[in-house]
């Protein structure tokens, strides 16, 4: 039974003398006596002090918890009411609290209010104006810990932008905590190691990269996660204009870029006009937006992730790639995506459905296209030529390069690609079915390991088989090298995609490799 004292015509306060029959106590928002209903607005001095109360439910009608209300009880946790304004001296002293959230309406917390809760490790304060507290290295300190004789074991979490008011401004009282974390809201920005992040979701603790300060250097390593005090955020997006601000034509100086395998999208003009030579897009990335890596003129190596679906307009325009493999996951390549990229060999994945106009324009050295899709992707022709020299629209024409290119297609699809009525893949130098480039005709794949380096290939295999000969073919089927050694020097080969045929005493294996 809980005892109350009337404090006004319609309010009461919980007072001492209550009979507690178990460790859980529910304080009601209102009580009725003699036909009158009273609102419970305060918990009086020493109301449940010294009881065995382990869990308590406090209604939101309570605005004050007075001196010693729960002192020396047995509380292991407490949810303070949202309308609470004041907490009295020693109100929750000598309990077993480990975590605590102080509502936004609290303006003052008395001396020793949470003293000797020696397991208390985390305090979250929701008030943007710091509540007054007592700071002293003795039992009167609001958060005195017997073990440390201060508050040095407690991590403090406060609202975004209030760090100075709580901890560093003249007269700030919330000092001496183990750590201080400013809680961020959705849309808030946060700088960590020269990279600016924006919070995407507070609930999921996710952020996106929105800017980079070049004081951090020319090598940009984006981490998978970033800390903010007690909170760890996962980097899931790269936003627009990361390295260029709002000026698309700005020249930048990023020479190396690492993208973590947590990022799913890369925004418009994220990293154009830099000097990135080698780029690996992780498997987590699904979309690369317009102009994301345009005008990285010295880029010679590009590896696209296996879950990439969309490549935006002029995403990689103007580079020096040579060879390029489009993963099976990609469904669309937008216009001008790989124009002026110095391409010589191109492999298109099985999932590709459409390639927009001029996507691979201005690549006059392109010699081989290996399309793996059994249903031919749609491509542009005429003025909208996908593989050609893109001429300005005012000149009214586009020169096709198809006559210089060997097209390799899956077995049985030459008609669909090139000869059936309405076929779009016409005018190529030749169309070759891929059967001559098929893989192994025997089951020893697991016994063979091929290591490809810049100027050398090593073939390793078990003692159960013997290498008899090797041959290397270009993607047009021309034999360019042969021999019988398991270390193959490839320095004389031009950059591109090749076929390696290995003949063993037990059969034949065929592998593709990129030089």
Notes on the protein architecture:
- By secondary structure, the chain is mainly beta.
- Among the domains are: about 190-295, Alpha-Beta Horseshoe (Leucine-rich repeat, LRR (right-handed beta-alpha superhelix)), CATH 3.80.10.10; about 320-435; about 440-515, Sandwich (Immunoglobulin-like).
- The strands form 10 sheets. Strands 15, 16, 17, 19, 20, 22, 24, 26, 28 and 30 form a 10-stranded mixed sheet that branches. Strands 1, 2, 4, 5, 7, 9 and 11 form a 7-stranded mixed sheet that branches. Strands 27-29-31-34-35 form a 5-stranded parallel sheet.
- β19 and β20 (about 230-240) form a beta hairpin.
- The relative contact order is 0.05.
- Mean pLDDT is about 90; it is low at about 440.
What is the topology?
Layout: E1 4-6, E2 11-14, E3 24-26, E4 30-33, E5 36-43, E6 55-57, E7 64-65, E8 77-78, E9 86-87, E10 99-102, E11 108-109, E12 122-125, E13 155-159, H1 163-168, E14 179-183, E15 189-192, E16 195-201, E17 206-212, E18 219-221, E19 225-228, E20 231-238, E21 256-258, E22 265-266, E23 278-280, E24 287-288, E25 301-303, E26 310-311, E27 323-325, E28 332-333, E29 345-348, E30 354-355, E31 368-371, E32 388-389, E33 399-400, E34 406-409, H2 414-419, E35 430-433, E36 448-452, E37 456-461, E38 467-474, E39 479-483, E40 487-489, E41 497-504, E42 507-514
Parallel strand pairs: 2-5, 3-6, 5-7, 6-8, 7-9, 9-11, 10-12, 12-13, 13-14, 17-20, 18-21, 20-22, 22-24, 23-25, 24-26, 26-28, 27-29, 28-30, 29-31, 31-34, 34-35
Antiparallel strand pairs: 1-2, 4-5, 15-16, 16-17, 19-20, 32-33, 36-37, 37-40, 38-39, 38-41, 41-42
């Amino acid at each position: 039974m809980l005892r109350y004292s009337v404090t006004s015509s319609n309010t009461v306060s919980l007072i001492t003398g209550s009979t507690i029959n178990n460790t859980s106590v529910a304080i009601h928002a209102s009580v009725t006596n003699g036909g009158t209903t009273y609102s419970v607005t305060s918990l009086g001095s020493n109301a449940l002090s010294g009881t065995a109360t382990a869990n308590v439910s406090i209604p939101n009608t309570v605005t004050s918890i007075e001196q010693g209300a729960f002192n020396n009880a047995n509380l292991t946790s407490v949810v303070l009411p949202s309308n609470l304004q004041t907490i009295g001296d020693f109100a929750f002293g000598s309990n077993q609290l480990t975590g605590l959230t102080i509502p936004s309406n609290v303006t003052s917390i008395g001396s020793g209010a949470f003293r000797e809760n020696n397991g208390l490790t985390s305090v979250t304060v929701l008030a943007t104006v710091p509540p007054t507290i007592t700071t002293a290295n003795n039992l009167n300190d609001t958060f005195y810990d017997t073990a440390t004789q201060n508050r040095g074991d407690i991590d403090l979490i406060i609202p975004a932008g209030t760090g100075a008011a709580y901890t560093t401004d003249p007269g700030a009282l919330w000092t001496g905590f183990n750590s201080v974390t400013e809680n961020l809201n959705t849309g808030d920005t946060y700088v960590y190691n020269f990279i600016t992040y924006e919070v995407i979701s507070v609930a999921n603790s996710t952020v996106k990269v929105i800017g980079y300060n070049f004081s951090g250097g020319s090598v940009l390593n984006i981490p998978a996660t970033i800390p903010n005090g007690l909170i760890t955020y996962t980097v899931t997006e790269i936003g627009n204009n990361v390295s260029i601000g709002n000026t698309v034509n700005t020249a930048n100086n990023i020479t190396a870029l690492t993208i973590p395998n947590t990022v799913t999208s890369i925004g418009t003009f994220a990293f154009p006009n830099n000097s990135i030579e080698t780029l690996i897009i992780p498997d987590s990335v699904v979309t690369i937006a317009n102009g994301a890596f345009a005008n990285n003129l010295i880029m010679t190596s590009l590896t696209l992730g296996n879950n990439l679906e969309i490549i935006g307009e002029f995403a990689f325009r103007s580079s020096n790639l040579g060879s390029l493999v489009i993963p099976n996951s990609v469904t669309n390549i937008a216009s001008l995506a790989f124009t002026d990229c110095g391409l010589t060999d191109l492999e298109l994945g099985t999932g590709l459905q459409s390639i927009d106009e001029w996507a691979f324009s201005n690549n006059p050295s392109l010699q081989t296209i290996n399309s793996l899709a059994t249903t031919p992707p749609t491509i542009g022709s005429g003025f909208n030529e996908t593989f050609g020299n893109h001429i300005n629209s005012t000149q009214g024409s586009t020169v096709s390069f198809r006559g210089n290119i060997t097209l390799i297609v899956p077995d049985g699809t030459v008609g669909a690609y090139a000869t059936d009525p309405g076929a779009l893949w016409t005018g190529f130098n030749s169309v070759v079915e891929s059967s001559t480039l098929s893989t192994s005709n025997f089951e020893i794949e697991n016994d063979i390991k091929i290591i490809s380096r810049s100027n050398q290939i090593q073939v390793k295999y078990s003692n159960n088989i013997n290498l008899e000969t090797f041959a290397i073919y270009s993607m047009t089927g021309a034999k360019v090298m042969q021999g019988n050694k398991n270390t193959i020097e490839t320095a004389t080969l031009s950059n591109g995609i090749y076929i390696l045929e290995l003949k063993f005493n037990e059969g034949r294996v065929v592998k593709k490799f990129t030089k």
